[in-house]
Every structure is written in structure tokens, then in C-alpha cells.
Amino acid sequence: xxxxxxIGVGIIGCGNICQAYFNGxxxxxxxxxxxxxxxxxxxARAKAxxxxxxxxxxxxxxxxxxxxxxxxxTVPAVHAEVSLAALKAGKHVHCEKPLAxxxxxxxxxxxxxxxxxxxxxxxxxxxxxxGLQTSRKLIDDGWIGRVVGGTVFLMSRGPESWHPNPxxxxxxxxxxMFDMGPYYITALVHxxxxxxxxxxxxxxxxxxxxxxxxxxxxxxxxVSVPTHYTGSLEFHSGATVTATISFDVHRHGHSPIELYGTxxxxxxxxxxxxxxxVELFSAVAKEWQTQALSHPYADNMRGIGAADLxxxxxxxxKHRASGDLAYHVLEVMHAFExxxxxxxxxxxxxxxxxxxxxPLGLIHGRLDN
Length: 369
Hints:
Layout: E1 7-12, H1 18-27, E2 31-37, H2 41-51, E3 54-56, H3 58-63, E4 69-72, H4 79-88, E5 92-95, H5 103-116, E6 120-122, H6 130-140, E7 147-155, H7 175-192, E8 195-203, E9 208-210, E10 220-222, E11 228-235, E12 240-246, E13 257-261, E14 264-268, E15 278-282, E16 288-291, H8 304-313, H9 323-342, E17 346-347
Helix pairs in contact: 4-5, 5-9, 7-9
């Protein structure tokens, strides 16, 4: 594998998010699009024609010797199943978030990858974009001093008004925490390092929701997961962050992420996006100042994590959006409900390395360092 110059990619799952990944694969010279698959072959053929690759069944894709890396874009309930099948077929895997629904399945994925000598990556990779990398540099360079606290707010009325298939958002493996939580928790670990403990309360406002999207207008969607999470995260760095993640809120006026340090404060942009506004309040300036973005990739660049993984496959270095990071985020997300049910702090057992910052000055389409 180390003699290769590019990594062949096969995408499994040709739903809403897949085109962003196709675009991302095309943007990086280390990736080569080979084929795509879906249980709906009509969808696979349409995406293959649109993107100049081959349409295959899942079985065919996993047997394709040109495919080195599988990008798993299936629904959360089968993330682990598909990733395990890819690993058994000898393929490296980059999975959409979350890594798995259960910690047991997440561990099974990571254990098999270790046994097979393969690499696992996982979304979100938005923390590798311009907004969060700029925020990371400001923190690392000491502009707000030592981070002592922070807040996270992701609050909306849920996706049933716009998503064409909203039912799964209220089933196990989804809800606001497992759907949107990975962006926020991953961003925090990228900025502050791993989480040490969680103390939380969860609830749900409705036993069912009414879909108002045109595809399922008027349908009742049973709710089997919490839809409002609030809690505190303690980090090994010593920082504590209060987080509220909810599908039960009509409107709010909070920043997505704010971090408070000994020398100032930082407003971090929406971690579901690659760009956004970064604002710094320093003890010297004594006012919020918008910062120029120091890094590239401010536009939608889903797939940057797969490209970063490709360099790791080629033996260049460790990858940033790693399976170890994703497993840690999965454990933290589960800890919210576990803490709420037990009415106590929950200690986090996993402790991944803080992902390496992306260096300045990289050529667009390359992530050599």
C-alpha cells in the first residue's frame, strides 16, 4: 500500500449527503473515485453517472480490488454492520457519524480494524475546516490564555419540516445528540482535548412528532429517544463546558460554541460547517473582534477526513478524524443519558490523543502534513 500514490474510494450509501462526499473526493489528489453502491441500485446508477464512476452492488464493491477505502454513508442503525463488512473484506473505512449506535458495536469495529491492520476514520471532519482550525490556532497561540470554561448550544425544532425521511431522527442512534452532537463534541475535543466526565439531564417534550415535509406531510413520527440534553463536560485539561443539545426549542440567541480563558474569550463558529465567523475578545482590546481565517477549506468539504485518512494509509502520518476520536465521542454522547438515568457523574474511559492541528500554508487539495 505504501507504494501507491492514490487511494481508490468506494462509497456505500447514495442518499442526501453523498454528493458532498463525491465533491470532496474529487477535490483531493490523493483520492481516486472508483465506484458507489446502494441497496437502491437506481440511486447508485444515478450517482455513478453524475460522478463518472462505476455503480455496483455492495457485495461487488467490497470485492473490487481497486477499492482501498470504503466511505460508509448508510443510516446510523447499520453503520457498524457495513463498516465491519468492509473491514472483513480488507478495506479501510471512513464512516459517517456516529461510528456506531452502541458502544459495543463501536468497540467491535475498532477491535476488528486493529486485528486486520486496517484504519478507521469517522465524520465529522468539519473541525478540519477554516473556522475551527483558526479557532484552534488562536487557542494554541495563547490568545485567550488557559481555557477554563465554555458553552455549547445546538437547539432547534428538529428536522421533520425539511428532511425527506425524518422518522429515523427519533429512533435509536439519532435524536439531537447522536445526529448533531458529534459535530459539537468532536469540535470540543479538537480544541480542548479529551473529555474526563459528564454530568447531565435528558428529557423529551413529545411522545410523537408530526412530519410537515412534503414527502411525509401529516405522518406521526414516534419518539423513542431523548430530544433535549443538557449537561456539563469536564475535560482532562481542566476546562468545564456546559452544553444544551435539543430538538425541542423554537428559537434561541446563543452562539454555537463559546470558550472562556484566563486572558479572553472566543466565539467559535457552527461546527456543522467548515467556515464561519471567529470572534475574539481579549483583555487588551476589550471588545469582540472578528478574526481573519488562517486556514483554507471554508466551503463544504466533506470528505477532507477521508483524504486525511488516505495519507495515513500511505504511511505519511496519523489521521485526524480517527476511529479512536469517534469512539470517544460516542462514549461521551452515551454518557449524557447514562448520567441522567443514574443521577450521577459518569467517568469517560476512553482517552484519545487530541487531533493534530493542520499546519498553515498547505496547497489546496493536499494534506501532506
